[in-house]
Amino acid sequence: MVSEKVKVRNVTGLHLRPASELADICSKCSCNITIVHPNGQVNPKSVLMLMSAAIKAGTEIEIKCDGEDEKESLKKIVDAIQGGFGEELID
Amino acid sequence: MKELIVSKVFSHGIAIGPVFLVPEEYTTVSDAKAETEAKIESEIQRFETAAEKVAQDLSLLAQNNKIFAGHVSIIKDFTLHDAVKHKIREQHINAEQASEASIEELRCIFQSMDDPYMKERAADITDVGDQLLACLQNRCADKFAALKTPSVIIARNLVPSDTARLNQDLVLGFITEEGGVTSHVSIMAKSLNIPALVGATGILDLVKEDSHVVMDAGTGEIYVDPEPDFAKNFSAKKKKLEEENAAYLADAGLPTVTKDNRQLKVYANVGSLKDIEQAVSLRVDGVGLFRTEFLYMENSHFPTEEEQFEVYRKAVETLGHEIIIRTLDIGGDKELSYFQFKPEQNPFLGLRAIRFCLKNPDIFRTQIRAILRASHYGPLRIMLPMLISLEEAESALELIRQVKQELTREQIPFDDKIQVGMMMETPAAVFCADEFAQMMDFFSIGTNDLTQYTLAVDRGNQEIRDLYDPFYPAVIRAISHIIKAGHKAGIEVGMCGEFAGDRRSTKLLLGLGLDEFSMSASDTPRIKAALRSMNYNDEQKHAQEILQLRHAKEIKSALDN
To answer: Nearest-CA neighbor of B300 among A13, A42, A78, A55?
Structure first.
């Protein structure tokens, strides 16, 4: 299992559009993925679960990947979150 | 042949053709059980096929509108899929029941969240759920799927998501049972230049699936199942009208000058970059009302300075003429998916337009910065909506002054002489017009709201639709007062409500001294031609007589002659 902490940087947080982009990326990975956020943890392959976590800009979250493509998957996910989904960034 | 006359008209053109009745039925969900293993598997298969079809459908829409991309993710979501399959397997219920229950559970989760944005997402889930259910019941979620030949679209009412799916090439005209001339469908029909009649009470009782209709959007006439000859005569009339329009369009690029040499500006009202392109093709002289709400409403967050700047800059560069940008006019009937407005008893008297902006200065400042920055790339003006007091004007002007200072400090170029004006749309603004005129560079009369507020008539209320009439002397006199006050202070007075594009009112407005007429772009060639045929001196005298009239009816008949 590999994991990394990352801060959500796009101004609006993980609302519908960024969440659906992220869920899309995660769904293409074959490993198991968990996002740990201040109020619990979610499976980011589900956009509904991801949105229900209501993760806002500036929140630090931890991505955990477990499975055969875990390293590549973790990098892809972290890059996407740090890229801010094409939105304005908070910092 | 059956006949129906709609009293309030707002567009032009004749449409003749078969009827397309927009379906509105809801079929109840069957409670058939899935008892056997084979039946369970077939129900799961049915759900998956339907979900796949809805996803494909939505993907097509998503190409043009980001909102639908989110809907695609929802319908593909494994949480939803797992929930439905689990219910079919464990509770032996059918695919419809399982889908309905799962969607409802998810909706409740979002509905109960604290975050107002997330709460709103319950509506997205319901929307997707409705389409899934429709697909499972073999009703087409795309209400227009059966529309194959050019037809007159008849519906109880149409919402934006309906029109997003509509193939415009197959639309000859629109008739809706409900709705007013300022409703969504009418504004859209105008910008697409499609004949439309709304508030046609009784139309759904008159037409059947296989009916044919003849409609004249300019006169409000609708004929259902006419005799063959009747339609032919109407076609001849239609041809003549088209020829007239072509002639108007050919002259559209000429200056608008009355017979006695009064030069006028005929501008367009626009609500998107697409409207700007249409305005270019109709050779309008400028834009008298650039509604910025689309930037906020078709978005998932408050648009950033950069996003707005790009749009304003593109608009003015595309048009190549002056654009009057109205600052955010949100609230009232216009809401945002990502911002929770507190429920109001009287939204039109509530937190909207400039009130919202002054209470949320960061949002206002972002927009002002974007407009000022774009003003470096072409002639822009700023227009403030819904002012009722000099304090509001002072606060807004002060904020603009501060933003200018900021930009100067940051060495960002902008037009320092940018004109700032206001909408005249409240009785309060009319009474204080003289003082406002001292502070502003121009006035623009918003007749839709001015009529509503002056007459205290809710323009969306069907029951009192007859009372919503800008030809009432009270409204006409308010307009006259505003123009006089503006001219006394030496500032330009324009109009950007529906009234400016009404042929009858053109004469009167000319006579009252209006400088700039702003209307749907599609109306401009016709109004330009009308103004060129008029004599300012004559209309001035005529207008003074009309101001003495006591009834709306007298005013209308005086203008018909």
So the answer is: A13
Tens-digit pLDDT profile for chain B (561 aa)?
888 888 777 788 889 999 999 887 566 778 888 888 999 999 999 999 999 998 998 888 777 666 678 888 899 998 899 999 999 999 999 999 999 999 999 988 888 887 777 777 777 788 788 889 888 887 765 678 788 899 999 988 776 556 667 788 899 999 998 776 655 567 667 777 889 998 898 999 999 989 999 999 988 889 999 988 888 888 787 788 778 888 898 898 899 999 999 999 999 999 889 889 989 999 999 999 999 988 998 788 899 999 999 999 999 999 999 999 999 998 866 778 788 788 888 888 999 999 999 999 999 999 999 999 999 999 999 999 999 999 999 999 999 999 999 999 999 999 999 999 999 999 999 999 999 999 999 999 999 999 999 999 987 777 888 899 999 999 999 999 999 999 999 999 999 987 998 878 999 999 999 999 999 898 899 999 999 999 999 999 999 999 999 999 999 999 886
Q: How far apart are CA B73 and CA A49, in angstroms?
A: 12
Does the distance separating the beta carbons of A12 and B300 come in below 8 Å? yes
- What fold is seen in the domain A2-86? Histidine-containing Protein; Chain: A; (3.30.1340)
Residue tagged 């004749």 (tokens): B14
Angle, helices B503-512/B473-488, rounded to nearest 10 degrees: 40
Cα–Cα nearest to B520, from B269, B326, B289, B298? B269
| A16·B70 Cβ contact <8 A | yes
Catalytic residue among B71, B135, B212, B496: B496
Which value does ipTM take for this structure?
0.82
Q: Is B496 a catalytic residue?
A: yes
A89 touches chain B (CB under 8 A): no
Exposed/middle/buried for B48, CB within 10 Å: 0-12, 13-18, 19+?
Answer: middle
- Nearest residue on chain A to B112, judged by CA atoms? A52
CATH superfamily entry for domain B37-136: PtsI, HPr-binding domain (1.10.274.10)
Inter-chain touch B73–A15, beta carbons under 8 Å: no
In Å, how far is A34's CA from the nearest CA of chain B? Answer: 14
CB atoms within 10 A of CB A80: 17
Q: Across the interface, do B115 and A54 touch by the CB < 8 Å criterion?
A: yes
Domain limits of chain B? 2-23+144-245, 37-136, 259-535
Residue B551 annotated as catalytic: no
Q: Is there a contact between A17 and B77 if contact means CB atoms under 8 Å apart? A: no
Nearest to B77 among A12, A15, A46 (CB): A46
Pick the CATH number of B259-535 from 3.20.20.60, 3.40.50.2000, 3.40.50.300, 3.30.530.20: 3.20.20.60
CATH of domain B2-23+144-245: 3.50.30.10
Tell whether B336 is within 8 A of chain A (Cβ).
no
